[in-house]
Amino acid sequence: MSDLPADLEAVRTRVLAEISAASDVAALDDIRVAALGKKGEVSLMMRGLGKMSPDEKKIMGPALNGLKADLNAAVDARKTDLENAALDAALASETMDMTLPVGKPNGTLHPVSQVMEEMAAIFSDMGFSVAEGPDIEDDFHNFTALNFPPGHPARDMHDTFFLEDGEKVLRTHTSPVQIRTMINQKPPIRIIAPGRTYRSDSDQTHTPMFHQVEGLVIDKGIHMGHLKGVLMDFVSAFFETDVDVQFRPHHFPFTEPSAEMDVRYERDGAAIKIGQGEKWMEILGCGMVHPNVLRACGLDPDEYQGFAFGMGVDRLAMLKYGMPDLRDMFASDTRWLSHYGFDPLVQANLATGLS
Ligand code: 2U9
């Protein structure tokens, strides 16, 4: 028996009974509002305090505050019980038989993601680790450190997306990731840098956003033979067949000497078969890291050398899996995705076959 005035004791007993009988959280909240809400029974009593005599107020004030605190505590405790009971019930009903075969997941792995995973599997098998970096870059990491002379066409608006501040750019290649790695990590360095890249020169076969994988090796005594060996192994593993390649001299500001690598191919019907044939198709660019780039990253070109390469992932996915139009890659058409998509539960790895 509490020392509450009788009428408050009655309220307390009744509301506590209602609280413990509440069957769910919603019902419990109705009880709380009816007693403690703005127009709640107890709240109205507390509003009556103003009209009471000082003696009455001395009794009713603390009594009402005590009652309010008791009822709030009872509501919180009941709420926790109800929530735990609901969770136990859900856990009990949701049995998951882990021995059952996984149902067909709805949704597929986008071909670009599949190819990124295949490339990561191939290069990590060659001792490369995956490095990533920001899509928004500054002039130094995207151009200057890569030996792009001032005024180089790649620097201006028709090729590059500039942010409002006129300084920052959407990276036009993932090379800034390698620059950041060379500045923050001492050689030996063996990385690939996959990611989104942006160029404002879109047309039939170029989209404003596309995907690249670039690679970099920095160590002592690195030469062009290492570059050719790694890329020849890569291309045969990627196309899962023996691929004839040729290296054709080219020019990039960030590599010297530079080359583009072509693969042999032949048409069979609408499809393209990579590997053998009379025709050549350029699939990537590469070269020995330019001494100015090494110096820009604080490395002595007489002590360290390196090679680098870069390829367009979207394009290589089209070549390997025969998609006719690059723009479909970005159209989010579920029919296209279910046709060209991959099983998300099958991880690309060399042992069980990439694709
Ligand atoms: C550092 C030094 C050198 C990366 C390279 C290419 C050649 C290349 C193109 C392929 C298709 C871009 O997506 S694409 O249009 N890239 O041909 N990229 S060498 O060279 C580097 C990178 C980083 C520090």
Brief write-up:
It is found in: Cytoplasm. 40% of the residues lie in helices and 20% in strands.
Keywords:
355 residues; alpha+beta; BirA Bifunctional Protein, domain 2; 2 domains; 10 strands; 40% helix; binds ligand 2U9; magnesium ion binding; EC 6.1.1.20; phenylalanine-tRNA ligase activity; ligase; Phe_tRNA_ligase_alpha1_bac
Notes on the structure:
The mean pLDDT is 91. It contains eleven helices and ten strands. The longest helix is centred in the first third of the chain and has 40 residues, at 54-93. It has helices spanning 6-21, 25-36, 41-48, 54-93, 111-124, 139-142, 175-184, 224-238, 291-296, 313-321, 334-340, and strands spanning 129-130, 136-137, 169-170, 189-198, 209-219, 245-252, 255-268, 271-274, 279-289, 305-312. With 355 residues, it is an alpha+beta fold. Helix 1 (6-21) runs parallel beside helix 4. Strands 1, 4, 5, 6, 7, 8, 9 and 10 form an eight-stranded mixed sheet that branches. A two-stranded antiparallel sheet has the order 2-3. The chain folds into two domains: 4-93; 111-332, BirA Bifunctional Protein, domain 2 (2-Layer Sandwich). Bound molecules: ligand 2U9.
